[in-house]
Amino acid sequence: MFLFRLLGLLLITLALMALGADALRSLEAGSVQIRSLAELWALVNQSSFDGFTGWVGATVPAVSGPLGTVMGYPAWAVLGVIGIVLAALIRLVRRS
User: Fold this and answer.
1) In the chain, where does DSSP find H-type helix?
2) What is the DSSP letter of 81?
């Protein structure tokens, strides 16, 4: 339980960091600049992103379309939603 709660808090922290980075990037550019999850992942480690997308495309082609859609969403939104849902689910399980 502790590890999942820690993972949820870590994802929320990463989402806030990505939001701050997008805010600074937007201020520098003078217009709204938002990184997608795919851009952020490729920025962190391009080879793992390429390997994952290639593996998903070869293993489960039906998931490639929806995965591409999710990868196009803002990184802070995806990480934040997953972190909040994970933290909330752990809290609900803990109360039961």
Assistant:
1) 2-29, 37-44, 46-59, 64-72, 75-95
2) H
Q: Give the angle subtended at the CA of 28 by the CAs of 25 and 33, to the nearest 5°.
A: 40
Tokens representing residue 94 in the block: 């803990």
Q: How many structural domains does the chain have? A: 1
Q: Could you report the per-residue pLDDT of 41-88, keeping only the tens digit for each?
A: 999 999 999 999 999 999 999 999 999 999 999 999 999 999 999 999
Q: How far apart are CA 50 and CA 73, in angstroms?
A: 18
Domain that holds residue 17: 2-95
The span from the CA of 9 to the CA of 56, in Å, is 27
User: Which amino acid makes up residue 1?
Assistant: M
Per-residue pLDDT reduced to its tens digit, 2-14: 898 899 999 999 9
